[in-house]
Amino acid sequence: MHYWNSPFVDWHRELPDGWDMYVCHLRSSRSKARVSAVHEMLALLGDYQPVPLLSGVRADQKGLFWIGVKAEYRPCVSPLLSHLGYTDQVDLLGPPNPIGAEPVEGGQWMTWKGEECFLQTVYQEDRAGMRDRAPDRRTFMLQDAHGAIVPVRGYRGDGEALSRRGLPPEDARLLVNLVRPRRLNRESPPLLDPFAGVGGIVLEAIDSGFEAVSMDIDPIVQYGLQNVTHRHILASAGDLPLAGGQFGAVATEPPFHAEARPVVMKLMREFDRVLIPGGRCSVMTVEWQLEILEHDAARLGFELVLKERVDRKGTAVWVGVWQKPE
Description:
326 residues, alpha/beta, six-stranded antiparallel sheet, 23% helix, globular
């Protein structure tokens, strides 16, 4: 199905007068996940009523999508762009500029809809910094053979079926952004990752302003997670030792192995219990897991917000987002 036929995006054909157009460049490694990237941008900018545009400037160039936002919100939008996962560059096409105005360094004048506008890059990903956020570069605290807690660089699990860890930072950011509430502040309910692993999701959540709670059944990772998250719980995701209605969001990636099936079959029931009304969950899964989650979510009355296949370096996964009824 072509992206413009997606039931999860309400495309707009025209940019309203007086609005800015943000020209967003898809990350090359996620170039086919356009709908997920659009949803990520809409969720990230949710406080400022963004609209997805079916087309825009440089429409002949591959790997672009367009978001419209009122020009008055420009100072609020720019600081948020550094949290993007599936978009690695954003250019701003502003409203018509006064004749004779000097172009800003690094930008260019261009004609759009018969008007002179100015296009300038307002966000460019720090590639080296992003690479350092990858699990094979990060330092994680582990207990050594003598019982001491020591930093270990690049820990990604022991290779067993249920303990392979290492969600790429762009995917972790995506999952966090997809459940971002409007008006995220200190009073917002926290985010939970019940399969926290080496902490990629909770790290991105905290960096984005969430209070984050990690959970994992593996005691090996408890020291590293305690070191990075606001609160860590040693428990199974299939039986959360938590009172109901504590969390505004859940973002996670369960193990893809078939041995995880018994836990996956309990996930939506547990998410329903711990989420507040209107809370969202975002999950990166393989297809058989998605089918279970989608069935259970429908039974519980959750709204399906997004479902898209993502090719992650040769591994076909799915992004699913659901919202609990108000």
